[in-house]
Design brief:
Elements (H helix, E strand, L loop, with lengths): L4 E6 L1 E4 L5 E6 L10 E12 L10 E3 L2 E9 L1 E6 L4 E5 L3 E5 L4 E7 L1 H6 L1 E11 L10 E5 L6 E5 L2 E7 L1 E2 L2 E2 L8 E8 L4 E5 L5 E8 L1 E4 L2 E4 L2 E5 L5 E6 L3 E8 L7 E3 L2 E3 L2 H12 L9
Antiparallel strand pairs: 1-22, 2-3, 3-4, 4-11, 5-10, 6-9, 6-11, 7-8, 7-10, 9-12, 13-14, 14-17, 15-16, 17-24, 18-23, 19-22, 19-24, 20-21, 20-23, 25-26
Length: 284
C-alpha cells in the first residue's frame, strides 16, 4: 500500500559559519527529528572565485555521524583521528564522531586556486547510546563504487548505505540506514519500497517531482508515515533526489551545537570538554 505523506518541510536559510549558509529542512519548526535522521543541510550551488581561503575552522563533534553527499565540486576533510581525504562530485563521506574529535572541511586547495562550483548535502545521522563513546571512524565511497538501483532508462540512482533492490551499499552503519541519491529525467517514474515501521524521507535537491499524486518542488523534504511501503515518484522536471529510510532509534535525543547525545547533561559535558581541551587540537 502507498505511504501517506505526513509533512512537506521547506528548507530555510541557516547561517552555520560567518561565511557559509545552508538550507535546513531538518530539524524544522513543524517537525523536529526522524531519529536517526537529526539534521539535513543543503549547501546550494555557489561559484568560488580563485584565491580565497574558505576551509571551515576545526570544530568538534560527538555522538553521531556527519554524512556528506558531494553534488558538485570537491570537498576536503581532515580530522584529529588521523583521517585526511578529498571527495568529489557523486562521492559520499561518512564520518563517525564517536566519543569526540575535531575536524575541518571545505573546498580543496585545487578548487580554491582555480575556482569552481561547490554544492553538497550533509546529514546528521544518529547512533544508539551504546555506541556514542566508541572510537571515531571514517568511510568514503566514490560515485563509481555506489551500486545502481531501480535501474531503468532516464533514471540514475545510486545506493550509498544499507540494502536495497538486492544490492548492498559500501558504507556501513550501526543500525539499518538506506541512503540513495541520484537523478531522474523529466517523465521518468520509479517506485520506492520502504520497510513498514521505518522512518522514510525524500529530499528534492533540484527539479520538481510528483510523489503519490502530490507535486513537490526543489528544496523540500518529504516525511512519510511509518505505515505501508510504496512510494511512487514521477519526475515532472529533470530532478535530483535523496531517498532516506532507517530503522528508528527509540531513545531520547539531546542535540545542541555540534553534539548529538541522549541527555542535556551529556551535551553540557561535551561543551565543557571542548572548552577544556579534551577534544585535542588539529592543524589544518
Amino acid at each position: 500500500m502507498k505511504k501517506a505523506i505526513k509533512h512537506i518541510l521547506q528548507g530555510r536559510e541557516k547561517q552555520i559559519t560567518k561565511a557559509d549558509r545552508v538550507l535546513q529542512s531538518l530539524p524544522h519548526k513543524d517537525f523536529r527529528f526522524a531519529n536517526p535522521f537529526i539534521a539535513l543541510h543543503h549547501m546550494l550551488p555557489g561559484y568560488i572565485q580563485p584565491g580565497p581561503e574558505l576551509r571551515i575552522h576545526p570544530h568538534p563533534h560527538r555522538g553521531f555521524s556527519p554524512v556528506t553527499f558531494m553534488l558538485q565540486g570537491e570537498g576536503y576533510h581532515k580530522d584529529n583521528a588521523g583521517h585526511n581525504e578529498v571527495i568529489r562530485a557523486g562521492d559520499v563521506q561518512w564520518m563517525f564522531a564517536g566519543k569526540g574529535l575535531l575536524h575541518s572541511e571545505g573546498p580543496t586547495e585545487q578548487l580554491l586556486q582555480h575556482g569552481g562550483t561547490q554544492e553538497m548535502v550533509q546529514l546528521w545521522i544518529n547512533v544508539p547510546a551504546a555506541h556514542k563513546w566508541d572510537e571515531p571512524t571514517y568511510q568514503s565511497a566514490t560515485r563509481q563504487q555506489l551500486p545502481k538501483v531501480l535501474e531503468q532508462e532516464a533514471v540514475n540512482l545510486r545506493l550509498a548505505s544499507g540494502e536495497y533492490d538486492g544490492k548492498t551499499g559500501p558504507i556501513k552503519s550501526f543500525t539499518p540506514v538506506v541512503t540513495i541519491a541520484g537523478e531522474m529525467q523529466k517523465g521518468s517514474r520509479v517506485q520506492f519500497t520502504a520497510i513498514p515501521g521505518y522512518w522514510t524521507l525524500l529530499y528534492v535537491i533540484k527539479g520538481k517531482i510528483n510523489v503519490n499524486m502530490e507535486t513537490v518542488s526543489k528544496h523540500n523534504l518529504i516525511v512519510f508515515e511509518k505505515e505501508n511501503e510504496e512510494i511512487m515518484v514521477c519526475a515532472e522536471e529533470d530532478a535530483q533526489i535523496l531517498f532516506l529510510s532507517a530503522e528508528p532509534i527509540d531513545e531520547p535525543v539531546a542535540a545542541k551545537d555540534n553534539f548529538v547525545m541522549n541527555t542535556i547533561e551529556e551535551i553540557e559535558q561535551a561543551i565543557a570538554d571542548y572548552k577544556n581541551g579534551v577534544f585535542g587540537c588539529l592543524s589544518y
